[in-house]
Structure formats: structure tokens, C-alpha cells
Write a structure and sequence with these properties.
Elements: H1 3-9, H2 19-42, E1 45-47, H3 48-55, H4 59-67, E2 74-76, E3 79-83, H5 84-97
Antiparallel strand pairs: 1-3, 2-3
Length: 98
Amino acid sequence: MNINQIMQSNANVQLVVSAAELKELFLEWQAEGQKQLAEAQADNLISADDVCTMLNVSKGTLQLWRKKDYLTPIKIGRKNFYKQSQIEKLKKKGNEQK
């Protein structure tokens, strides 16, 4: 079982890891972060504040939509971003209902 599997299991354990294993884990995390950043650059991502402005909703509404999987964020670091394509779909849906 590797460190990632142990972390995903949410087990309450103490680990003894070698410096090489720790380095490997950090390199994996770094690669994952770089992958997310590349995805963000490929698909135009919009910050949560900008989404609120574009859709004329509060941050609370955006948070509720996230919990209900109505709008799925992409987390980069500690911030949430949203795909422009998803925002455009919501805007069209809102215009159709009016």
C-alpha cells in the first residue's frame, strides 16, 4: 500500500517513511498541480468571484450549486475555478427559462 492509498483511506495511522518515499510523494503532488494548471490554461477557467458577477448570484448560491453538483469547480491550490463552457450553458438555460 502506498502513501496515497493510505491517505485516501482516511485511516488514523502513524507512518515512518524514507526520504526517498517522501520526495516521490512531493514529486507526484507537483506533477498533479502542473497537470491541473495545464488544464486550466487549455480550457478558459473563471474565478468564483467572476462567476458570481457573470451569473448575478451570491457566493452562497455558488456554494450551494457546488454541493448539489449543479456547477462543478476545478480546484487549483485553495481556489475554485469554473469552466467557461459550464457557465455559458447555465446562462443559456437561464435565458430559456425567462
